[in-house]
Each structure stands twice: as structure tokens, then as C-alpha cells.
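Worked problem 6 (solution included).
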Amino acid sequence: MKRQKRNQSSRAFYKGYLAATQRKPMDSCPYMSGYLHQEWVNGWRDGRQDYWNGFGNSTKAQKLETYRTVSTNIHHPNGWSTI
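Solution. The predicted structure is:
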């Protein structure tokens, strides 16, 4: 079975959010410039804001799961899809 190619911008956002929740500084961004750098920083800022607001681990886990499973192919329970 082939592995589905991941969306790089969503992955960068997810990694930035994860870094912020692990208390890593913004300087630890692996991307030097470009749109992936900006997506990582946006994720980091979102994660830092959640950390400052005192979100618990379960809330962070739910949010990370939402970011990880972002897909353009949405299947609805009644059988129609957005393809």
C-alpha cells in the first residue's frame, strides 16, 4: 500500500505547534525562510498561545490530532464526498 504524500505546510504548522507546547524557542525552527518557515512560526505562535492560556494536555492532544488529519478529501456519512 502506498503512503499518501503529506501536505508540507500542514506538517510545518503541526511541528511548530508541537515545538511550542514542548517549550522550545522560536529560534528552533528548522526552516530558514519561505512559506514553510511562516507556517511553522504560525503553528508555534498558536501553540504558545494555548500554553499561556493554560490548555491541558488532552485539549492540546485533540488540537494536534485535528492538525495531523487535515485532508482535502472529505467523506460524509451519507455517502457523498467533496472530490
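Discussion: The CA atoms of residues 5 and 12 lie 14 Å apart.
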